[in-house]
Amino acid sequence: MFWILVVKLVCLPLWRRMAVWFLWSLLLWAGGTMEAQKAAFPVAVTGAQVQGQVGGSVLLVAECHPGFQVREAVWRSLWPSEELLATSFRGSLEILYHSRFLGRTQMHSNLSLELRPLKSGDSGNFSVLLVDTGGRTWTQILHLKVYDAVPRPVVQVFIAVSGDAQSPKTCQAFLSCWVPNISDITYSWQQEGTVDFGTKLHGLFMDGQVLMVSLGPEDKGMAYSCIVSNPVSWNSTVVNPWESCNHEAGKSSYKDVLLVVVPVSLLLILVGLLSAWHWGPCSGKKKDACANGVALETENPLV
User: Fold this and answer.
1) Average pLDDT, the chain
2) Distance (Å, rounded) from C-alpha 126 to C-alpha 144?
3) What SS3 state is found at 193?
4) Which among 82, 31, 62 has a CA at the least distance from the CA of 131?
5) What is the pLDDT of residue 20?
6) CA gap 88, 75 in Å, rounded
7) Given CB 3.0 to 4.6 Å as the disulfide criterion, which of 21, 68, 78, 249 pairs with 64?
8) CA pair distance 263, 261, nearest whole angstrom
9) CB-based contacts of 41, cutoff 8 Å, min separation 6
10) Checking DSSP bridges between strand 124-132 and strand 137-147, what pairing results, if any?
11) Do 83 and 77 touch, CB atoms closer than 8 A?
């Protein structure tokens, strides 16, 4: 049959042969394009990142290629243990599978899976397998990371001892900020009422956890806020370091008073001891003997 077609084509006029070859080439190109599209159709998507907060909720979205007519959907937890979470078959949803998420899952009409309330141990990998009416499959893998809510940070103020080179009216303070038992957090500082620290001396240490500031009497009302954050929450605390500077200055004045009061008190005590020693022989029972001695000397004057 093929050779008959070839003979017929040879017998055709040149312009007709060219038209037939063009149609055949077009059909072959269209068929190759369709096959290439089928081969290029992805069967799995990985690497999607999802973040959630303990006590909150998270939505794992099922996405597929345009034109993909979903007939079945299967949600699984892959890590730390593989568990079946929810399924959908021709519109019928099922979520009552015995897993660590039992009672905390909800499957929506768009086949996305909602988890709530989240726990700190819910972090892990999840997958959704979609099957279309033609039997093709599409797998999507998502990585869920659950973070704790950031509590209010604790800020401590430490005052540096003034040296000779430093102005006596200047206070150098170290502000230490921290939160307990929280991972993946970042520290930052902000001067209240301004965008930056201006021209004041400052420095950051320990990845922003400690701030050094140099203050003067004109900075009496200046306050700093420590901001602690993770990918899903943040918290802050405001502190006025000049109050601690005044407290430290008061302690220095008290020391100066002690340097004056203690020597004077010791001098008075010494004077009292000397007085007691001087008048000691005429005290108590010896007082009468002293009086008799004085009387005898009066009765027997020297001739």
Assistant:
1) 75
2) 7
3) coil
4) 62
5) 53
6) 9
7) 68
8) 6
9) 65, 136
10) antiparallel
11) yes
Q: Which two tokens stand for residue 89?
A: 């078959």
Q: How many helices (H) does the chain have, and how many strands (E)?
A: 4, 16
> What does 94-161 look like in DSSP terms, one character per residue?
E----STTTTSEEE-TTS-EEE-S--GGG-EEEEEEEEETTS-EEEEEEEEEEEPPP-PPEEEEEEPP
Contact 175, 224 (CB under 8 A): yes
- Reported residue count of the chain is 303
- Residue 97, φ and ψ in degrees, nearest 5: -105, 140
User: Which residue has 């159709």 as its token pair?
Assistant: 41
- How far apart are the C-alpha atoms of 61 and 41, rounded to whole Å? 20
Distance CA 9, CA 252 (A): 113
Least confident of 40-54, 134-148, 250-264: 250-264
Closest listed residue to residue 179, CA positions, set 209, 206, 145: 209
For 176-224, write each residue's pLDDT tens digit. Answer: 999 988 888 999 999 887 665 543 547 888 888 999 998 888 888 889 9
- Give the pLDDT confidence of 5-34 residue by residue, as tens digits: 444 444 555 556 555 555 555 555 544 444
Burial of 241 (0-12, 13-18, 19+ CB in 10 A): buried
Checking if the pLDDT of 1 tops 60, the result is no
Residue 78's Cβ-count burial label (10 Å; 0-12, 13-18, 19+) is middle
Instruction: For 98, list phi and psi in degrees, rounded to 5.
Output: -75, 100
The torsion angle over the Cα atoms of residues 278, 279, 282 and 285, rounded to 10 degrees, is -110
